[in-house]
């Protein structure tokens, strides 16, 4: 399961909009939402003591 | 009348591929998170598995929502995606046009001939507040016996002037042998770059003769070759400030330096805009408005390219509430809203005949 979360984190980090290919308000909102999901995912990892 | 558009919206500036890539990664993230481990894992670590499933449920929901929002954003914004990417892409069209002019010159075309602009009519300009009005003015000019450029001047409260310059499309299929500069050689030269086509030089001459000075702003309007020439002048203005571009059925995507508000109006089944070899870029300052032109709209040989057919599109544009269209239209007509009508000129343009 630890590897599962690691793999999910890897995908999540790849999901960030590329500057220059997607800019503007929507991209900014998406980037911050992805960052908050990443924090939640890391918290989940920690809470399961992995 | 159904029109579709892309660009001109500052909220989303993205390529569809990028949005799809992001959406795919989000989906893969959710799938990875949701994947079931082998049965042994459940037997060996059931408590962690249950804890994991419960705690990851809300994250999965968020990822699913994010994925849907990406897809909705893509669909809302790229309703004309098919038109963008269905087109073939050839990057070297301007170079090809340049090579053609070199070959033509070697074969005896004289492409650097002298041009003239002769004042044929001077009246008073009329208030212009719609794209359809612009098209009507251009249509009347295009229907004249001689190649005629229209220039309408408006006085701004700031003391300078705004001019609307109208450039008709190709009128003859000659390659530089006649006196009409709106011919095929001008098409090739305008495609190869700014400042080369005889028609472009003639328009520049007419602009100077209309008394437009470096502090004045110019909105360029053109059909077909006229749109391409207008695009070159908007990208590389000389002796004026370029303030906007409205083009009907014109290849524009090859012009690199267009920083003014651009409204590119194209019929999907009009082959002429496709001559640029690629799709128009998606930018905040550039809206591309597209529609499929039905045959009964015009009797012309290339009905989808005719101004009569484009008039139906402009009617829909003027009634449109699309964000990108409204933004660009607002930017183009902003100056004209407060400006007062002044003089209106028509210039017959010509070039020296190079072949007897």
Description:
The complex is a heterodimer of chains A (50) and B (356). With 50 residues, chain A is mostly helical. Chain A is built from 2 helices and 1 strand. Helices cover 72% and strands 4% of the residues of chain A. The radius of gyration of chain A is 13 Å and the shape is elongated. The mean pLDDT of chain A is 86. Chain B has 356 residues and is an alpha/beta fold. In chain B, α6 runs antiparallel to α10 and α7 packs parallel to α9. The longest helix of chain B is centred in the N-terminal third of the chain and has 32 residues. The radius of gyration of chain B is 25 Å and the shape is elongated. The relative contact order of chain B is 0.18. About 2% of the residues of chain B have low confidence. Chains A and B meet through α1, β1 and α2 of A and β2, α1 and α3 of B. β1 of chain A pairs antiparallel with β2 of chain B.
Summarize the structure.
Chain A has 50 residues and is mainly alpha-helical. In chain A, 72% of the residues lie in helices and 4% in strands. Chain B has 356 residues and is of the alpha/beta class.
């Amino acid at each position: 399961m630890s590897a599962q979360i690691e793999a999910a984190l890897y995908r999540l980090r790849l999901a960030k909009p590329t500057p220059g290919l997607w800019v503007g308000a929507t991209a900014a909102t998406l980037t911050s939402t992805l960052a908050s999901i990443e924090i939640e995912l890391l918290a989940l990892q920690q809470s399961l003591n992995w | 009348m159904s029109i579709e558009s892309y660009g001109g919206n500052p909220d989303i500036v993205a390529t569809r591929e990028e949005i799809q890539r992001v959406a795919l990664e989000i989906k893969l993230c959710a799938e990875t998170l949701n994947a079931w481990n082998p049965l042994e894992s459940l037997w060996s670590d059931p408590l962690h598995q249950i804890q994991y499933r419960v705690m990851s449920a809300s994250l999965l929901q968020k990822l699913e929502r994010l994925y849907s929002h990406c897809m909705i954003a893509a669909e809302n914004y790229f309703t004309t995606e098919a038109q963008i990417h269905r087109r073939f892409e050839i990057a070297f069209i301007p170079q090809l046009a340049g090579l053609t002019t070199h070959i033509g010159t070697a074969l005896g075309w004289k492409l650097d001939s002298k041009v003239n602009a002769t004042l044929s009519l001077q009246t008073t300009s009329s208030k212009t507040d719609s794209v359809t009005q612009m098209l009507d003015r251009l249509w009347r000019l295009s229907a004249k016996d001689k190649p005629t450029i229209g220039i309408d001047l408006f006085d701004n409260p700031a003391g300078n002037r705004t001019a609307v310059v109208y450039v008709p499309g190709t009128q003859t299929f000659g390659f530089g042998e006649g006196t009409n500069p709106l011919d095929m050689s001008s098409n090739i030269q305008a495609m190869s770059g700014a400042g080369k086509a005889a028609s472009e030089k003639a328009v520049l001459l007419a602009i100077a003769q209309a008394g437009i000075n470096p502090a004045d702003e110019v909105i360029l309007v053109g059909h077909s070759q006229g749109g391409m020439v207008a695009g070159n002048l908007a990208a590389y203005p000389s002796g004026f400030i370029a303030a906007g571009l409205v083009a009907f059925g014109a290849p524009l995507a090859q012009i690199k330096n267009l920083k003014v508000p651009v409204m590119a109006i194209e019929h999907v089944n009009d082959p002429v805009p496709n001559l640029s070899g690629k799709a128009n870029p998606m930018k905040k300052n550039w809206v591309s408005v597209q529609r499929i032109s039905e045959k009964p709209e015009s009797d012309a040989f290339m009905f989808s390219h005719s101004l009569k057919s484009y008039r139906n599109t402009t009617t829909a544009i003027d009634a449109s509430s699309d964000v990108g269209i409204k933004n660009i239209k607002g930017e183009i007509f902003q100056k004209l809203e407060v400006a007062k009508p002044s003089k209106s000129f028509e210039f017959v343009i010509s070039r020296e005949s190079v072949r007897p």
